[in-house]
Amino acid sequence: MKSIKSLKGLKGKTVIVRADFNVPLAGTRVVDATRVTVALPTIQYLRKGGARVILLSHIGRDPEESLKPVYNVLKKHVPVRFVAEVVGPAVDKAVAAMKNGDVILLENVRSNPGEKAGDAAFAKSLAKLGNIYVNEAFPVSHRSDASITGIPKYLPSYAGFQLEREVKELSKVL
């Protein structure tokens, strides 16, 4: 996978970033925000390049769990809007309203049964939201979920900074 450092002409492009915001919660409070903060360099790099950034992630095992607590942490570091859906009219409207440098966080991708099923139609509906795909979710990259292996079938794909770092460190061990 190519690095986002090789991307040219980000201004005006919509970039779908598959992050790993599966953080531990105590009720509706994030206990450890490390997975959020390690994604910030990639998010900021894309924003500074003028991209429109759509963040995808899952949280927990229950499809009913919400990424709203993650949003509450993320908004302390970057201007972001939370959309309480993964696909549908509210998402389409939010994406259409985005300006260069804007960031939106969509709801838990596992709230759609197509995610865990690796459903091609669901992956295609997610891919239609953007122009470029960035994987920033090393811990889940082995899964065949629609947001991990499906979207890259439809969009040019790149590695985010954290994914690159994880692969580099793992390569040293191997």
Report on the structure:
This protein has 174 residues and is α/β, with parallel strands linked by helices. Helix content is 34%, strand content 17%. The protein contains eight helices and nine strands. The protein has helices at 34-37, 40-48, 68-74, 89-96, 113-117, 120-127, 146-150, 161-173, and strands at 2-3, 14-18, 25-26, 29-30, 52-56, 81-83, 103-106, 132-135, 157-159. The chain has a seven-stranded parallel sheet, with helices on both faces. Strand 3 (25-26) and strand 4 (29-30) form a beta hairpin. It is globular and about 35 Å long. The model has no long low-confidence stretch (mean pLDDT 93).
Written as H for each helix and E for each strand, in order along the chain, the element string is: EEEEHHEHEHEHHEHEH
Tally the helices.
Answer: 8
| Rg over alpha carbons | 15 Å
Percent in helix: 25-40%
Helix and strand content put the structural class at: alpha/beta
Strand count, sense and barrel status of the largest sheet are: 7 strands, parallel
